[in-house]
Write a structure and sequence with these properties.
Elements lengths: L7 E4 L3 H13 L3 E4 L8 H14 L3 E3 L3 H4 L3
Parallel strand pairs: 1-2, 2-3
Length: 72
């Protein structure tokens, strides 16, 4: 998926799956829309995500509402 270089990836799996795909995608400048907002409870991971976004200009779009909060 990353070799195709999409503009955005939509993640709807779980926090662990999000952690696996997020940093490699963001470091390539690919933005992500995620439902797995519970992954951001890991402050170390959150710091790496912020750094990757600042470095490449990629964005993380967080889904709001009950669906995005299922994994909490």
């Amino acid at each position: 998926m990353l070799t195709v270089q999409p503009d955005i990836i939509i993640e709807a799996a779980n926090p662990e799956a999000f952690k696996e795909v997020a940093l490699p995608a963001l470091k390539k400048g690919i933005s992500i829309a995620t439902l797995s907002i519970g992954a951001f409870a890991d402050e170390n991971f959150l710091g790496h995500v912020k750094a990757a976004c600042e470095e490449t200009g990629a964005k993380v779009y967080i889904a709001s509402g009950v669906i995005g909060g299922f994994d909490l």
